Amino acid sequence: MRLRKFRVRAFRCIHDSSEITVGDLAAFVGKNESGKTTILQALTLLNKDESVSELDLCDEMAEELKEEIRLVEGEFDLNSNETSIIKKKFPNLPEIKKIKLFRTNKKPKVQYEFENVKISEKSDGGLNSWDNFSKRMLDFLETIPNHLRIQVNTKFFEGPFPKNQVSFDTGLAEFNNQFHVVAIQDPKVIEEWDKIYSSSENQFSNLLSGGSEKIALENFISAELHPRFVYFSDYKKIYGNINLNEYLLEEKGEKVESVESVEEFDKAETVRNLFYLAELDINELEAVKNSPSKTIKLLNAGSIRLTKKLNPTWKGDPIHVDLRYNPGNIMSVVISDIHRDGTVTNTGLLNRRAEGFKWTFSFIVNFAAETQRAELKEAILLLDEPARNLHPTQQKGICDLLQNLAGSNQVLYATHSPFMIFDYTPGNLLVVELDKRKHLSRIFYDYWNADDDTLIPILYGLSRGLVESIIDREIGRNSRPVIIVETMSDSMYLNSFDKFLQDPNISMNPLNIVSAFNKMAVLPLAIFYRNHGYNTFVLLDNTEESRQISSQLTSNEFSPIQTIFFEKDGKTIESIEDYLVLEDYLYAVNQTYEIKLRHEGYSNLTSEDVISKKKKGVLENLRAVWEEHKDDDWNEFDNEEITRYICEKITLEETDFLSDKTKDQFRSLYRLIAERIRQYQNAAITVDLDKFQKPKKRD
Fold first, then answer.
1. What element of type H or E holds 127?
2. What is the mean pLDDT of residues 77-94?
3. Per-residue DSSP letters for 210-248?
4. Using CA of residue 578, residue 579, residue 580, residue 583, what is the dihedral sign?
5. What single DSSP character describes residue 183?
6. Angle (nearest 5°) at CA 422 between 372 and 526
7. d(Cα 143, Cα 192) in Å, to the nearest integer?
8. E-strand spans in 517-620?
9. DSSP 128
10. What's the pLDDT at 515?
């Protein structure tokens, strides 16, 4: 049974999620406290044994909650086997392929709906159910002589539907023995009872629970087919030395302070999971502990089984897990690295490994054991941040684990990591956002309409192809030259004016511009592109920090031709903003900050206001103006806001404020870039790429 649609209402921070479609392997992405965990926990309310706490009901919906409302509902598709099982039990009903489950705030049990299927709710005496079976038994007892009837204990038939075959057989056998003792002097009565007792209709496997067809169907689904939601959130750490004496006490239900002999122990269940994967019986191990040879044999077999189960999910060099017995009834977990050439290194206790390694090891042990122990099949697994603290390489291993689980289960999980997103199909990727004013969660099925900040992990994941293109030499060798710039503003200006000028004398259209995250990112980004075959050029401000970047580029074997500083009329300028005529730039400043400036008594900032600060470049002068007004709540001057204003006007073709001189000065920048590229090509500089790139590992 697979969940295909769900809706959550009035549960904690969620007023109404609206109807959401989900796939077999769906990721929930959202910022902290957006409601991801709440959604997963709300879905667990569809478990038949779950209950609703008053504390989980949304405070802001107190009025609505006075009436009965559905807190969570899910629409499920049944597979062909499940459909046939129901058909076999209820041959008169049409095939049931969909079921809706829901839980309300007023009724304690999960309720069912069968859309487009008519099911009788009337009491049906012909239904082969426990209710009718017990009624027939009691009716039969009414027909036997009174002196016999008053001696028969009918408690079994007056009780609830037996939980299983064993309970049914035991109860019926006890009644049968009792009846034979009571009616031993009346062979005819015993003969009539034996016919009923041996009837195939009265076998437990054929009995339903409920007096009507609908109740019987609901009870049957509840007992046999009700979906299971399994929630995982607490991923505990395993350390290395396990005190078996204390573990045995824990297994017997006797509380102990610690099961670990060296480190503080989280919970005994982590050790239980380790034993489960290794297929070790603690009692068997306890029985042979005085025989070193038997203990070693038992632990070696467990070590091999444990290693085999962990390595398929373990990314990077394989590991070997060795369980060793030590004096004091201590079992140690020893880890070794196994290299591709068969070399074994770094053998030592698990608790001596790095924290990230211990967490990764523990997660895989705990999660693999818990899912396997439950013999999960056709369950719906709900995982809250399953890959936190893991390196991206290990996160890919967890992705493989989730994909394997999704073969026989449905997996829904919350994540912040772009490396845990591998399916971008709507329904398999859901975005959760929080409305801060109303403190309500909203789920986006069409996730591209969500807030940009929320989408950052998704965008990083979608851009993995761009990252891979950087390290693909064939793409690099066959690409246009790359111009790396220091800021997003540089990138916006170059792209906007390139489109705006449309100068046939500039053979740069379109520019291949890559914006670094910040100045510190320029050097490594340039090296990455250069080392993978791109003709790489770097465009720099004339600041001290940028000159240091230039020196570092030279030290890393970049030609001086590849480093381009902003210049105008043969003189250096501070930044790309200095290519704009000051009056043109101040027009954008005055328009952007109009309200703030007027509030402070300025009609407009003038060229004289700016030049009077006697700083280097327009940006430094404007920052000085803003610094003078920091006590007037001007905050800091944001040049990117001005950049966006100018570029937006170019897009809208509202560029009357840009003078011809500004256009000419930007043309000179493009010509400078084009000239440097030609110089580099004419110099026939050949880069030995092999010395920059390590040989790839072969599997």
1. none
2. 89
3. SSBHHHHHHHHHHHHT---EEEE---PPP-SEEEHHHHH
4. positive
5. T
6. 130
7. 11
8. 536-540, 563-565, 567-568, 571-572
9. -
10. 92
Q: What angle do CA 684, 688, 690 make, to 5 degrees?
A: 155
Q: C-alpha dihedral over 414, 418, 424, 428, to 10 degrees?
A: -10
Angle 85-86-92 (CA atoms, 0-180°, nearest 5)?
125
Q: Stretch 51-58: mean pLDDT, rounded?
A: 91
Pairing mode, strands 482-485 and 536-540: parallel
Q: Per the omega criterion (within 30 degrees of 0), is the bond before 510 cis?
A: yes
Three-class SS of 528-558 = HHHHCCCCEEEEECCCHHHHHHHHHHHHCCC
CA 395 to chain centre: 11
Note the Cα 200 to chain centre separation in Å. Answer: 51
Pairwise CA distance, residues 44 & 6, whole Å: 12
Residue type at 385?
E
Residue identified by tokens 């408690």 is 155
- Nearest by Cα to 403 from 421, 426, 390: 421
CA 492 remoteness from chain centre: 33
Q: What CA dihedral angle connects 47, 51, 56 and 60, to 10 degrees?
A: 100
Q: Which pair of tokens denotes residue 607?
A: 């060229």
Summarised one tens digit per residue, pLDDT across range 326-346 is: 988 899 999 999 887 788 999
Pairing of strands 25-29, 567-568: unpaired
The span from the CA of 468 to the CA of 176, in Å, is 75
Integer Cα distance of 567 and 3 in angstroms: 62
The CA distance from 586 to 642, in Å, is 9
Convert the pLDDT of each residue in 579-598 to its tens digit.
999 999 999 999 988 876 76
CA distance 404 to 418: 19
Cα end-to-end distance, the chain, whole Å: 39
For residue 203, CA distances in Å to 186, 194, 196, 197, 223 come to 26, 14, 11, 9, 17
Q: Look up residue 357 and give its amino acid.
A: F
Query: What token pair was written down for 136?
Result: 């027939």
DSSP bridge pairs for 25: 411
The pair of structure tokens assigned to 490 is 């540089």
426-450: b (≥16 Cβ within 10 Å) or e: ebbbbbbbbeeeeebbbbbeebeeb
- Residue 490: enclosing H or E segment and its boundaries? helix 488-501
Q: How many helices (H) and strands (E) does the chain have?
A: 26, 22
Strand 241-243 and strand 330-338: pairing? antiparallel
User: What digits encode the pLDDT tens for the residues 502-543?
Assistant: 777 665 556 789 999 889 999 999 998 998 889 999 999 999
580 φ, ψ (degrees, to nearest 5)? -85, 140
Nearest-angstrom CA–CA distance, 164 and 171: 11
Please state, rounded to an integer, the average pLDDT across all residues of the chain: 85
319: burial class by Cβ within 10 Å (0-12, 13-18, 19+)? middle
- 460-466 CB contacts, 8 Å cutoff, 24+ apart: 460/418, 461/418, 461/419, 461/421, 461/422, 461/424, 462/424, 464/418
The token pair at 365 is 């042990």
171 contact partners, CB below 8 Å, separation of at least 6: 156, 159, 162
The tens digit of pLDDT for each residue in 541-578 reads 999 999 999 999 999 999 999 999 999 988 999 999 99
Note the pLDDT tens digit of each residue in 467-503.
888 878 888 888 889 999 999 999 999 989 988 887 7
